[in-house]
Design goal:
single chain, about 450 residues, alpha/beta, Aspartate Aminotransferase, domain 1, Aspartate Aminotransferase, domain 2, 2 domains, seven-stranded mixed sheet, four-stranded mixed sheet, 16 helices, globular, binds pyridoxal-5'-phosphate
Length: about 450
């Protein structure tokens, strides 16, 4: 692509560093400039339309512009556009939103802490794992376990929790108290003849072995996404969480469910914790909480944790943590309205209704020569690109098959999320059957183009 002087592309190259972007490639080719939207589609500055099959970053649950939320933001900005929630100050939207979240929590929860992003919600949860154990007289419980391939955010602590080596390299991370255990990707990682149940037992066994090796008296918390999103839509195998939760209980380890992607209907229940029967002590949520229209996250904590925090205030004084924009009235008002929209739409029933067609349509690609496995739940689905389907052999990494499919899809007007050699789908929750059919048509063209480039048939 030729980058014209003074174009938005040239100005972007000259002025912006983009997250998760190869800076060298970007300096040569410039950005894709998104200028508008309708429904599940976005438009670039040449007027070309793309179907967005992952709702931006798994977040734009109601599409990319929502008039009703714009009105609510405008009205709230006019009445009270900002006030903080430090030192016993509050505002009505933040109280209303906290009450609403507690009323729909998948397990009894006691209080809500607000932040601006999923990373910050997880950072807060990490700090509370430590604060709680100090409060109850177990200061040696300091280590935190998450899973390889997990994604919990980008701040220094949340990325330490994440199990993505590319996000640690040369950042001097992860920090020392963070440990990583196996991730439960049955299709790629089971041994020949191993059932899902046996695989789940092996994964839970690896967690217990790590806990015993480190000393259970040193482990403060375990974090997990119900479905691992950015790791490649990895759906937990049957009985995995049942086994994991029994181990956490045995060694008195706090369980934090990261519902940043799974929360608010994505898996066909209001929470991934309901779909997979999780009983977490804390739940982090963000993204669809505000339909992505405002940067806000919520961390719910149970009463055991809250009571320990309360004791700390008797000892230490104020709870010494917070963010300038915690409980921001505009963000809270928009999130509250988003939850009202979900209720009016009956979002869970909607997702359950459209999910079988979505999963069946994309599962048909398991017959494509490049595709080894397709698995989905609700409106979340992963597709594995495999070099040798029979032996579950991957493509050579330097073929960059996933990236090729992504680039070809873009040519056909489809924005895909590519994770190595996996494709991940999480469309806006408002998607209709005809748009799913259109995704399939464009994906088919992209896969065929890629197969032709690779000489596979
Ligand atoms: C499961 C999960 N947790 C946390 C985060 C981090 O959220 P944010 O980018 O809002 O900090 C993400 C972002 O994609 C996520 O997918």
């Amino acid at each position: 692509m030729n980058v014209l002087p003074n174009s938005i592309h040239a100005r972007d190259i000259a002025s912006v560093v983009h997250p998760q972007t190869n800076l060298a490639t970007h300096a040569e080719t410039g950005p894709l400039v998104i200028t508008g939207t309708s429904g599940t589609r976005v438009r670039d500055d040449n007027g070309k339309e793309y179907i967005e099959s992952v709702a931006g970053l798994w977040c734009a649950s109601l599409g990319f512009a929502v008039e009703r939320l714009a009105q609510v933001a405008y009205e709230q900005m006019r009445t009270l556009g900002y006030y903080h929630t430090y030192r016993q100050r509050t505002n009505e939207p933040s109280v209303d939103l906290a009450e609403r979240l507690l009323s729909i929590a998948p397990v009894p929860m006691s209080k809500v802490l607000f932040q601006c992003s999923g990373s910050e919600a997880n950072d807060t949860a990490i700090k509370l794992c430590w604060y709680y154990h100090n409060a109850i007289g177990k200061p040696e419980k300091r280590k935190i376990i998450a899973r390889r391939m997990a994604y919990h955010g980008s701040t220094a602590a949340a990325v330490s929790l994440s199990g993505k080596p590319d996000m640690h390299a040369d950042f001097n991370l992860p920090f020392e108290p963070f440990l990583h255990t196996e991730f439960p990707h049955y299709y790629r990682r089971h041994e020949d003849g191993e059932s899902e149940e046996e695989f789940a037992t092996r994964m839970a066994g690896a967690l217990e072995a790590l806990i015993l090796e480190e000393g259970p008296e040193t482990i403060a918390g375990f974090f997990a996404e119900p479905v691992m999103g950015a790791g490649g839509a990895i759906i937990p195998p049957r009985s995995y969480f049942e086994k994991v939760q029994a181990i956490l209980e045995k060694y008195e380890i706090l369980f934090v469910a990261d519902e940043v992607i799974c929360g608010f209907g994505r898996t066909g229940s209001m929470w991934g914790s309901e779909t997979f029967d999780l009983k977490p002590d804390m739940i982090s949520s963000a993204k669809a909480l505000s339909a992505a229209m405002q940067p806000i996250s919520a961390l719910m904590i149970n009463d055991k944790i809250y009571q320990a925090m309360l004791d700390q205030s008797h000892k230490l004084g104020p709870f010494a943590h917070g963010y300038t924009y915690a409980g921001h009235p505009v963000a809270c008002a928009v999130a509250l309205e988003t939850l009202k929209i979900y209720e009016e739409m009956d979002i869970v029933t909607r997702v359950r209704g459209i999910s079988p067609g979505f999963i069946d349509t994309l599962s048909a690609f398991a017959d494509h020569p490049l595709v080894g496995d397709v698995r989905g739940v609700g409106l979340l689905l992963g597709m594995e690109l495999m070099g040798d389907k029979a032996s579950r052999g991957p493509f050579a990494p330097d073929l960059k098959v996933g990236a090729r499919v992504g680039a070809n899809a873009e040519k056909h007007g489809l924005i895909l999320r590519v994770v190595g050699d996996r494709l991940v789908f999480a469309p806006p929750l408002i998607i209709e059957a005809d748009e799913i059919a259109e995704i399939a048509k464009r994906l088919s063209a992209a896969l065929d183009d890629t197969a032709a480039e690779l000489g596979v048939n």
